Structures are given as C-alpha cells and as structure tokens.
Amino acid sequence: MTGLQPMIRLRPATPPDLSLILKWDEQPHVRDVSGDDEWNDWDWGNQLGRDVPWREFLIAEVDGRPIGFVQTIDCREEESHYWGTDCPEHSQAIDIWIGEADELGKGYGTQMMRLAFERCFANPLCQHILIDPMADNFSAHRFYESLGFELLGPRRFGPDNCLVYQLTRARWRSGAQNA
After folding, report:
1. Which pLDDT does position 72 carry in this prediction?
2. Backbone dihedral region of 138: left (phi > 0), alpha (psi from -120 to 50 degrees) or beta?
3. Which residues contact 145 (CB under 8 A, 6 or more apart)?
4. β-bridge partners, 96
5. Which residues have a Cβ under 8 Å from the Cβ of 24 and sit 6 or more positions away?
6. CB 3.0-4.6 Å disulfide test: which of 6, 107, 121, 140 passes with 133?
7. Domain segments of the chain as ranges
8. 45: CB partners within 8 A, 6+ apart
9. Taking every annotated instance into account, which residue ranges of this chain make up the domain N-acetyltransferase (predicted)?
C-alpha cells in the first residue's frame, strides 16, 4: 500500500442501512467467517431499529461511502448470553466485517478495530475486549494478534469452533495494538 490511507469514520447504523447490511451479510467472504450462529439469516430489520444500552451497530465509512460494519456489545448484558454468564463485568466484544470483497486488504479493518477499541475503552470500567474468530480462520488470528489480542483458547459457540482472544485495557494502553 502506498500513499496516505483514507480515514475511516464510524457512524450509528440505522434502519435505512438495512438493504446494505443484508447485501453484505450475503457476501461469501462474510458468510465464510461468520459461522452458523445468529449472524446468518438474522432478523436485521428488527434489530437495527432496536436501541439497547449494551450494543452498538456501526457503519464504517470512507469519505462518506459505507465500506463495513462494526458491532460492539457488553458481553455480560447482551441478552442471548452468547458469551456466557461468567465473563468479566463490563467486558466488551467486537464483530467486524468489510462489506465488499474488493475493499479487503486496504487497512480498513485495522482502522475499524482501533476506532472500536476507543469506543469500548471509553467506558473506564471496561477492562477487556473479546473476539471469537472461527478456529480455521488463520488470517483473522494473525490480524487480531497484530492488534495486541492474546489467545485465551478454543471455545465452541453453538456448532462453531472458535478461538477466543482478549485485549486488555493495560495491553491496549501499553501500545500493543501498534506492534
């Protein structure tokens, strides 16, 4: 990559974004990494219009052009208890996608994650961010490790074999995400 990288901006996802999110949700590169959990065939129409204190749906934009999606959740407060009931209080989890395959490999995911870190750690009580890439998604493992996440171990979420990674506030503050 040469030259200056365009800056990403995150904005709240709203019901008018539904058709775009549904399109992205069907993209092979998104479906391949999302597993068989609630993402595939999820009721986006109802969820986008629902404002809950434990979740943010965000659209990533470059120069006003949508290129991706970010979700942040409070792991303990999230109503499906996807992460279980024993996760540390105020822990956050992040999910991201780049919407179109031709936007992959441009550094947008890194910028999106760093903006998501800032949002999560803006809560002074948040001490951990968790992610759960599929166990066989080796490029995602390398990506998250490059951002400072440390492997906690394997975990099965429904039918999906995942690896759980954690980024602590202390590690984030130390600059590990810039390694």
Report:
1. 95
2. alpha
3. 151, 165
4. 70
5. 30, 68, 69, 97, 99, 100
6. 140
7. 8-178
8. 15, 18
9. 8-170
How far apart CA 115 and CA 82 sit, in angstroms, is 23
Supply the Cα-derived Rg of the chain in whole angstroms: 15
Place of tokens 């600059």: 175
* Residue 131, beta-bridge partner list: 165
Instruction: Determine the residue type at 140.
Output: A
Total Cβ atoms within 10 A of residue 28: 8
Q: How many CB atoms lie within 10 A of CB 67?
A: 23
The beta strands (E) that lie in 46-86 are given as 55-62, 65-74
- Residue 87: closest CA among 145, 27, 131: 131
Q: Which residue has the tokens 């394997």?
A: 154
The H or E element spanning position 113 is: helix 108-121
Structure tokens at 133: 């890439």
pTM: 0.86
- Residues constituting the chain: 179
Output the six-digit token pair for 32. 């391949």
Residue numbers in the chain where pLDDT is lower than 50: 1-2, 37, 39-40, 179
| Top-level class of domain 8-178 | alpha beta
